[in-house]
Amino acid sequence: MVGGEGVLVDLSIKGCRVESDVRVQTGNQLEVRVYLPDHDFSLDVESSAVRWSRGREFGLEFVRLRSEAQELLHQVVKTLENGASQ
Questions:
Q1: CA nearest 6: which of 17, 24, 14, 18?
Q2: What parts of the chain have a pLDDT lower than 50?
Q3: What's the CA gap between 32 and 62, in Å, rounded?
Q4: Would you say domain 6-84 falls under CATH 2.40.10.220?
């Protein structure tokens, strides 16, 4: 079991890129808790898969989320997309 912290970058509906000092290998399965700015609660990803890893960065594919987390993820990504297009 590995524990650690990182900075989430490039969030999408299907996954994200993470910058972290924690070393992971492609194929590892991770449980992820994302703390979102302007929210009093976290986005909990029950299962994610490491799809690539380079130095201090790795890419995650979200494999399993509860329906509440999926809805929150959609809202957050939509908000980010709207902010980027303005």
A1: 18
A2: none
A3: 9
A4: yes
